[in-house]
Specification:
Blueprint (H helix, E strand, L loop, with lengths): L3 E6 L5 H16 L3 E6 H6 L11 E6 L18 H8 L3 H4 E8 L9 H10 L3 E6 L4 H18 L1
Parallel strand pairs: 1-2, 1-3, 3-4, 4-5
Helix pairs in contact: 1-6
Organism: Streptococcus gallinaceus
Protein name: Putative NrdI-like protein
Pfam families: Flavodoxin_NdrI
Length: about 150
């Protein structure tokens, strides 16, 4: 039987969606995993109710924070909260293998801070991170880490 994994994400500017699409292609060529992507923004937009996942997943989250420097202020998440709501829905958080953060390194301490906050909130690891749309070596590195995580649970 084919192993299944969800890639659950929210993308506002298209960067995270581009990364998830390229990662899905990587998996199709490197594994026999069944990949299903869930764009939480689409669920909200289409008013599709959240649902419990039936397989493990990895979450992907860009960083959108309200002002500040990410150290002593400016660490409040904005715009991406529906992803947290989806992860918190029923027992979804228990199926999460970890989170991959993205952002812009120009924001220093705020770079991928939201992913770190999710990891702390839900008790799963930050698997890795990438900047903006990510490079091909980011796709391959993160893809291999996810493959290893899936292999560990089976």
């Amino acid at each position: 039987m084919k192993k299944k994994i969800y890639l659950v994400y929210i993308s506002l500017s298209g960067n995270t969606q581009s990364f998830v699409n390229r990662l899905t292609s990587f998996f199709q060529f490197q594994t026999d995993l069944e990949i299903e992507s869930v764009h939480v923004k689409d669920l909200v937009k289409e008013e599709i109710p959240f649902y419990a996942l039936d397989a493990p997943f990895v979450a992907f989250l860009p960083t959108y924070l309200e002002g500040g420097n990410g150290v002593d202020n400016g660490d409040t998440e904005i715009l991406t909260n529906p992803l947290g709501d989806f992860i918190a829905y029923e027992d979804n958080h228990e199926r999460c293998l970890g989170i991959v953060g993205s952002g812009n390194r120009n924001f220093n301490h705020q770079y991928c801070l939201t992913a770190k906050q999710y990891a702390e909130r839900f008790g799963f690891p930050v698997i890795d991170n990438f900047e903006l749309r990510g490079l091909q070596n980011d796709v391959e590195r993160i893809g291999r880490k996810i493959i290893d995580l899936v292999d560990e649970i089976n």
